[in-house]
Amino acid sequence: MGDTNANEREEGTALLPRFDKEGLVTAIVVDSTSLEPLMLAHMNAEALERTLQTGEAHFWSRSRSKLWHKGATSGNVLKVEEIRIDCDQDALWVSVAIEGHGAACHTGRKSCFYRRLVSDESGARLEPTGDAPLFDPKDVYDK
Amino acid sequence: MGDTNANEREEGTALLPRFDKEGLVTAIVVDSTSLEPLMLAHMNAEALERTLQTGEAHFWSRSRSKLWHKGATSGNVLKVEEIRIDCDQDALWVSVAIEGHGAACHTGRKSCFYRRLVSDESGARLEPTGDAPLFDPKDVYDK
């Protein structure tokens, strides 16, 4: 990591995203007020460009292999307030305000992270945090 | 996403991590008090197991292809306070307290996300947020 290129990428002011072999960087999406993590998604160059142009989060949907304007179906558009990039420029921190129902997760909850890990001698399992759905996915996605 | 297996993965209490083809899930590491994103890393099954067993964050280093006990060299061990998992179980939210210098980034800063994107008609560039290094990497890594 000591070469000039790495130093420019880590300390410089040039945006030099390090896209992976599928052309993607990872985006951590957080609530701009509470900083609560909402979801994890991926952006290709086009998704990042559209996000910067429109102020609304766009991702690359790996499951559907297409550009994804988050909230286009559900109304839960993510208005971008700030984007940060990490040291080696392969991850983004996207601070957003959620429109619509105020839910970023397709299950209807505000955040995708609605379960915590608990572990003891019998192993690890999940425990709900109690985050309740803010909309019924059936009303939004199955029409 | 409507099959029984997906429903169990999304709404159940069983830990069923969806490791990618390289055997990894993505981990968003955040400060347990402020929720500020600190870094993004990856865990394989062994790293997750070690993390749960020891209470200290372990990752899989993709650049070095080895298990990585974060902070073993720098002293900046990450004490885990809570782990959450997302809806489709391919991402973790790891809340930590940083030991040592209180810095999670190898550049010496608390967070890896020390630059924001700014964009205008001439394009996008990066701007420092002003986060200062808490240690000099040369003192820690080049010995």
Automatic annotation (TrEMBL), chains A, B:
Residues that bind Mg(2+): D86, D88, D90
Pfam families (UniProt xref): PRA-CH
Domain of life from the UniProt record: Bacteria
Keyword terms, alphabetized: Amino-acid biosynthesis, Cytoplasm, Histidine biosynthesis, Hydrolase, Magnesium, Metal-binding, Zinc
Cofactor: Zn(2+); Mg(2+)
Biochemical pathway: Amino-acid biosynthesis; L-histidine biosynthesis; L-histidine from 5-phospho-alpha-D-ribose 1-diphosphate: step 3/9
GO molecular function, one term: phosphoribosyl-AMP cyclohydrolase activity
Sites where the protein binds Zn(2+): C87, C105, C112
Record text on cofactor binding: Binds 1 zinc ion per subunit. Binds 1 Mg(2+) ion per subunit.
Residue ranges occupied by any Phosphoribosyl-AMP cyclohydrolase domain in the UniProt entry: 39-114
Keyword presence, Oxidoreductase: no
Enzyme class: hydrolase
Catalytic activity: 1-(5-phospho-beta-D-ribosyl)-5'-AMP + H2O = 1-(5-phospho-beta-D-ribosyl)-5-[(5-phospho-beta-D-ribosylamino)methylideneamino]imidazole-4-carboxamide
The keyword Ion transport is assigned to this record: no
Function of the protein: Catalyzes the hydrolysis of the adenine ring of phosphoribosyl-AMP.
Self-association and partners: Homodimer.
The family this protein is said to belong to: Belongs to the PRA-CH family.
Record protein name field: Phosphoribosyl-AMP cyclohydrolase
Taxonomic source organism: Pseudahrensia aquimaris
Encoding gene (name): hisI
